[in-house]
Amino acid sequence: MIFSFETLNILYVYVLLGVAVLLTVVCSAVLWRRAARLRKFTASEASREYVDEEHLPSVSVVVYAHNECENLERFLPLLLHQDYPDFDVVVVDDASFDGTRDLLSDMLPHFSNLRVTFAPEATRSLSRKKLALTIGIKASQKEVVLTTNANCRVMSDQWLRSMMRNFVPGIDVVLGFSHYRYRKDTSGGRFYRVFDSVVTSLQWVGSAIKGKPYRGISDNLAYRREVFFQHSGFSKSLDLKFGDDDVFVSEIADGTNTRLELAPESQVQTYYDNVPKAHHLLKLRRDYTTQFVSTKAPFYAQAFFSWMNYLRLGALIAAVAIDYTNVFTISASALLLILSWVMVILPFNRCCQALQAPGLTLSVPLFYLWRPVLTLYYRMRGISTRKTNLTSMYE
Questions:
Q1: Do 369 and 310 meet the contact criterion of CB atoms below 8 Å apart?
Q2: Are 302 and 30 in contact (CB under 8 A)?
Q3: Nearest-CA neighbor of 257 among 233, 292, 222, 205?
Q4: Count of other CB atoms within 10 angstroms of residue 384
Q5: CB-based contact 153:268 (threshold 8 Å)
Q6: Which of 47, 216, 262, 357 is most deeply packed, by most CB within 10 A?
Q7: Is residue 79 a contact partner of residue 49, using CB atoms and an 8 Å limit?
Q8: What pLDDT was estimated at residue 395?
Q9: Contacts 24+ apart (CB under 8 A), 233-239
Q10: 69: helix, coil or strand?
């Protein structure tokens, strides 16, 4: 048999379509597995072993505040009126100058479970956030510390119960979940920010479900007070301005002493005045502190998925380019493209439901292609802004 250029082209087309089929199956399997793992976890929460009512631990909610007078006025009462037997709220005012001190002074006589302390204004070579949290934790007297921020709103008076019920014997760390107020974001790019937030959450949440916790969220993070001091607090990362949640969690958490809590009543909402700016800053900070976390597996897995995604699209484009006059090739490529989009959108939206995020539709596959580009941008931007993540004796 004599092979012509046309025969070779057809062979190449079939190989490319076969590669596209294989990559479609693999990419779909990865996403559906993530969605199934998350769904199974949330479904199993109701049947987990929890602390009974008589043995719920005492807890101090440590609230970090810097110029958050308006948010404290709205959200602090929600913390103080939690349905929980033994708790107090310790607000750490980090040198606010917007009326925060006056507000807290006015509230103190009305709430017996409210305590207030302050971070000194003049510091050198220290993270302001870590210093404030350390002061708040030292001021607390309860068994468990639950950290949050003044711009966070708890969604239920059962928040403390849903978090504290996880402190069965052997559990020292409970990872809660928080997300920004999606409806507050009306600026351009808001759909991508939802997508990116969900993908980022799936990485650390999925790793925690698999017994390899490496990150928490300071908006909703609980640990035993004695564990904080046993690990000398944040002493191992004093040169970092941030990392009070991810770097610190990597130090104290493992698969045996940590639990993840995702029940809707356990989640909190974070309010930002400028969501795009907050998202941008958090991306830069997270990208920098990622190098210090205990496992890189979720990041490698996401990078591998992105490469498979690009290869699949490249195979389809190449097949059409080689045999663009063949109706079968064009139809098969179009069918595979549509199928791959559907198989990406459906599991992603299932994950959105579990994480209280709004669902996305046709934009999801495009965002999966665009995200590695932006990740590279933030990586390069992070190199030039490296010093902003480090403490300085001149600040």
A1: yes
A2: no
A3: 222
A4: 8
A5: yes
A6: 216
A7: no
A8: 47
A9: 233/130, 233/134, 233/137, 234/127, 234/130, 234/133, 234/134, 237/130, 237/292, 238/125, 238/126, 238/127, 238/130, 238/391, 239/125, 239/390, 239/391
A10: helix
Global pTM value: 0.93
Do residues 347 and 38 touch, judged by C-beta distance below 8 A?
A: no
Contact 31, 343 (CB under 8 A): yes
Place of tokens 């087309």: 13
Residue 292 near residue 243 (C-beta atoms within 8 A): yes
Distance between CA atoms of residues 237 and 127, nearest Å? 9
Q: Rounded to an integer, what distance in angstroms lies between the CA atom of residue 31 and that of residue 43?
A: 18
pLDDT of residue 390: 80
AA letter at 71: N
For 273-287, write each residue's pLDDT tens digit.
999 999 999 999 999
Instruction: Name the 3-class secondary structure at 263.
Output: coil
For β-strands 173-175 and 258-260, DSSP reports them as parallel
Token digits of residue 89: 């709220």
CA distance 367 to 373: 10
Angle of CA points 355, 297, 269, to nearest 5°: 20
Neighbours of 17 (CB within 10 A): 21
Query: Which residue is associated with the tokens 């760390």?
Result: 173
Q: Is 373 exposed, middle or buried (0-12, 13-18, 19+ CB in 10 A)?
A: exposed
The residue behind tokens 């009306």 is 186
Beta bridge partners of 222: 146, 174
- Report whether 119 contacts 79 (CB < 8 A): no
How many CA atoms, within 13 angstroms, populate the side-chain half-sphere of residue 131? Answer: 18
SS3 247: helix
Q: Which residue has the tokens 């989009």?
A: 341
Q: Which two tokens stand for residue 215?
A: 């990150």
Is residue 319 classed as helix, strand or coil in its secondary structure? helix
Those residues of the chain that have pLDDT short of 50 are 1-5, 393-395
Residue 242 carries which DSSP code?
Answer: S
Q: What is the mean pLDDT of the chain?
A: 92
176: tokens are: 């809660």
Give residue-wise pLDDT tens across range 175-190: 999 999 999 899 999 9
Output the six-digit token pair for 298: 């979720």
